[in-house]
Amino acid sequence: MHSHAAEMPVDLKQIDNDPNFSSRMDKLVQLSRDRHVNTFAQIEWPDTLSDTAWWLSPELLSVHGTEFADSLTEAQLKRLSKWECINAFSLNVEGERELLSALSAQLYAPDLPHIDTYIHHFIDEENKHLWFFAEFCRRYGGKLYSSKKVGVANEAFCREMAFFLLFARIYLFEELGGHYNVVAGGDERVEPFVRNIHQIHHADEARHITFGRAILAQAKEIAFSAADAAQREAAVAHLQRYLQISVEALYQPAMYRDSGIEGGVALRRALLAHPARREHHVFTLLKRPLKFMNDIGIRLEGSSL
Ligand SMILES: [Fe+2]
Ligand SMILES: [Fe+2]
Fold first, then answer.
1. CA of 127 to the centre of ligand 2 (A)
2. Residue 33: C-alpha distances to residues 30, 79, 99, 109 (Å)
């Protein structure tokens, strides 16, 4: 009966005590309802898309800033932009499929804070994204790429840490994909239909990222006080590994082959080690999420990316 306040278990339900958090959730739910779009009915798929257009901004290409880009003609770079776009969208399919099952599994867990209504909207929106990205890849690429990215090992984390890591992986995945959507979606050089797909996605993702930041800021302290030192260290290593796998997946050898570029495996290796690319990963592609994670006390190393 002498239980001291500091010894009270801090579980995830604690999150509900913050009125700011609750009102942000209400706001996000309202926005999802106000901006709801029946994407299935609204997208008008062109029969074909030009092979001689940019499908991604040249600055988004995996060879950008290197001598490999200089050795390719504009026509070759445009062809590469098509297959890099198919790869980026295939990665979205993979990531969103995983996210859908992981989020569904959270619903109505007894210790889930009041985020269930928002999770329903999240699932609803991701289900549409998954559909249009897969449809895009099949129609205009004739296939989906597989990243063969065997998900990061699922170490035995306590519930609070597993919860935090789930939303951290989702957040990192969405920030990374979001960079492509923002740049290509705002680039007049990109083929209009492709640009529109980037824009449609970004319209929903901006809210998901806001949600991710809010839930992570809340769950971080709870997870890190529930876990022991070994788990805390393993959690940071887990996210580091997740980021690395996600970055490596952008250098899919098959997309070089499909663009008519020889030696895709060697090219991938050379690019991943290239100083200009490593700089791009840390200072452009992952700048925002690395900063946010650092702000909540998770220091991820840019040097291994
Ligand atoms: Fe999405
Ligand atoms: Fe999303």
1. 10
2. 5, 39, 21, 24
Alpha-carbon Rg of the chain, whole angstroms?
Answer: 20
Amino acid at 53: A
Distance from residue 201's CA to the centre of ligand 2 (Å): 8
Question: What is the C-alpha separation between 53 and 251, in angstroms, rounded?
Answer: 21
Query: Per residue in 58-112, pLDDT tens?
Result: 999 999 999 999 999 999 999 999 999 999 999 999 999 999 999 999 999 999 9
Please name which of 240, 236, 207 lies closest in space to residue 223, comparing C-alpha atoms. 236
d(CA 69, CA 198): 24
Tell me the CA–centroid distance for residue 130 and ligand 1, in Å: 7
* CA–CA distance, 305 with 295 (Å, rounded to integer): 19
pLDDT higher than threshold 90 for residue 153? no
The predicted pLDDT at position 2 comes to 44
Give me the residue spans of the domains in the chain.
Answer: 51-147+159-295
Task: Provide the phi-psi class of 148: left if phi over 0, else alpha when psi is between -120 and 50, else beta.
Answer: left
**pTM of the predicted model, to two decimals?**
0.94
Class of domain 51-147+159-295 as given by CATH = mainly alpha
The Cα 158–Cα 230 span in angstroms is: 12
How many CA atoms, within 13 angstroms, populate the side-chain half-sphere of residue 13? 6
Q: Tell how far the Cα of 60 is from the centroid of ligand 2, in angstroms.
A: 20
